[in-house]
Amino acid sequence: MMTSVGFLGCGKIGKEMVRHLRAQADHSVAFVQSPNFVDDFDLGCPVVRQLDESICQADLVVECATADVLKQHSEFYLRNSDMLVFSVTAFSDEAFAQRAQSLCQAHGTHLYIPHGAILGLDGICDARPLLKSVTIDTIKSPASLGRSDRERQVVYEGPTRGACVEYPRNVNVHAAVAIAGMGFDDTKSRIISDPAVTTNSHAICIEGDGISFRLEISSTASGGITGRYTPVSACGSLDRVLGGGEFRFV
Ligand SMILES: NC(=O)c1ccc[n+]([C@@H]2O[C@H](COP(=O)([O-])OP(=O)(O)OC[C@H]3O[C@@H](n4cnc5c(N)ncnc54)[C@H](O)[C@@H]3O)[C@@H](O)[C@H]2O)c1
């Protein structure tokens, strides 16, 4: 079945998915909502600078803007469309997370969380009954974190909820792991700023009843906040949502 896909935000990650969709005949791009999107693709669909309720209609809306943009627009979109959401730190706001769940339940829509810059969310989710501790260390360059440190230093250590407040654009993977596993208060985050690195790297340590997992993921930082892997993994997540098999949050 042909599915129409809209984009809320369309920068580094969004453009890769638009390119991916355009290479297939199975699904269509319904609209792009973004204040500065330049249509190099000749999409032939409406491009709007801000929400236009009569135009922004699609079976699935992919959010790849910011956590604030997601929060501002989910009230409309979750009434009408399923959503695949990249700005996962938004759900560290408990009131917003509950509202999003209520909207999905009331309107029969679904909210999908991609694995994004890491992998293994499905396995973490499956291990929930056994989990005793989940910790994530992220190492990024100061520029990527919006800082100007000249020496390596720990810039955050504590519950994932606080990391999402302090670094909302950098710890979406922490938020995704928290949702999949032990929640925002019981998952522990550490963020390290290191001027020597040219990668975004994440080390996830999971201990539980009879289990011990270590995941180490590193991706070249190619400018901006998003590393090499996420735009590529986003296309796989989109395919699985369109085919019905991605990790479902609500
Ligand atoms: N889940 C993950 O693992 C993961 C990994 C990397 C990035 N991210 C997140 O994904 C999101 C997108 O990342 P990116 O690298 O593509 O960012 P980007 O900066 O390249 O693109 C963001 C886009 O959002 C648009 N935008 C800004 N304000 C908007 C508004 N009011 N309405 C609509 N669009 C608006 C911008 O114009 C831009 O095109 C960010 O929130 C980022 O933190 C998540």
Q: Look at the helices and sheets and give the structural class.
A: alpha/beta
Number of strands: 11
Average pLDDT confidence is 94
Q: Return the domain count.
A: 2
User: Count of helices?
Assistant: 7
Give the distinct bound molecules.
nicotinamide-adenine-dinucleotide
Shape-level CATH architecture of the largest domain: 3-Layer(aba) Sandwich
Question: Strand-residue fraction?
Answer: 25-35%
Strand count, sense and barrel status of the largest sheet are: 6 strands, parallel
Overall geometric form: globular
CATH topology of the largest domain: the name is Rossmann fold
Residue windows where pLDDT falls under 50 for at least 5 positions: none
Terminal Cα span: 22 Å
Question: What is the CATH class of the largest domain?
Answer: Alpha Beta
Order of adjacent strands in the largest pleated sheet: 3-2-1-4-5-6
The H/E string reads: EHEEEHEHEHEEHHEEEH
Alpha-carbon Rg, integer: 18 Å
Overview of the molecule:
The chain is 30% helix and 27% strand. By secondary structure, the chain is an alpha/beta fold. The chain folds into two domains: 4-116 and 229-243, Rossmann fold (3-Layer(aba) Sandwich); 121-220, Dihydrodipicolinate Reductase, domain 2. Strand 1, helix 1 and strand 2 (28-33) form a beta-alpha-beta unit. Helix 1 crosses helix 7 (229-243). The longest helix is centred in the C-terminal third of the chain and has 15 residues, at 229-243. The radius of gyration is 18 Å and the shape is globular. The two termini are 22 Å apart. The mean pLDDT is 94. The site of nicotinamide-adenine-dinucleotide has 29 residues, from helix 1 and helix 6.
